[in-house]
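hey so i finaly got around to running the thing on ABC-type spermidine/putrescine transport system, permease component I from Rhodoluna lacicola. pasting the sequence first so u can double check i didnt mess up the copy paste, my clipboard has been acting weird all day
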Amino acid sequence: MAFAAFSHGGGGAKQAAPASKGNGRVALLLLLPGLLYLAIFFIAPLFSLIATSLQTMDISSGFPVYNYGFEVANYVNVVSQYGPQIFRSFFYALIATVAALIISYPLAYFIGVKARRWPLMQGLMLTLVIAPFFISFLLRTFAWKQIFSNESWIVGALQSIGFLTPDQYLVGTPFMVIFGLTYNFIPFMTLPLYTTLERLDVRYLEAGADLYANPRKTFMKVTLPLSMPGIVSGTLLTFIPIAGDYVNASGLFLGSTETSMLGNVVESKFLKSYEYPTASALSVILMGAILLLVTLYVRKSGTDDLL
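ok and heres what it spat out for the 3d tokens, dont ask me to read them lol
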């Protein structure tokens, strides 16, 4: 907003006076804290991450020492070595985002449109949506691990009815990882959808009915297009953190070594094996892939103004 105000300062409205040098200096002073924040906490770490990803390894001393260089082969090596984890991260993120959208849209529609006449119930339902935020992300995920543990009655019941074989369990499977990702990020999908649907003018829906459109056609032609900004915002807020998540897929929670995602590899390389160039290269690849996918998605959905 500050950038927009600065770029349009004095020239956006016809009645506005031309921007003077004094106004420009004031705008720059107002922008200075934000620019410093971006430079210190985003641009500098980003350059450091990229520089680390290109480091070369020197073992002449008997111990691996990383020196600054331009080792592009680091990227080739991590893609060839961790291709399954890269694919799994985006595949899980896609499935969990779609599942969150399918669950959240009817919920947000009911709260934002149908429950308008009952403000107390609307507020209560919104509170229930954000209630999981009152509990730690780790505790929530660990609770699901206990509920679906190998000794739980749920797994026992599924085995007794033949849904699972006696040697099959839920924890450590892709299903549980996607389930945990979907559950933990549903509020990120529901709230943007609610803010869009809550402003939906129901007279458009009544006009559609007056023109003999059935509910399905009214939804496809009126409700869905008008709620598209909320859908785009919700999917971005859900997909991006899921792609980099490393909690749900961890063997300590709902996953196993067979379900590890890119975040798990980065965590292991940074904190356990200290292979900083490998971890940095994977982080840059993750960031670049997300940026590319988000750009294509936003342009395809016709909401370029979100970029």
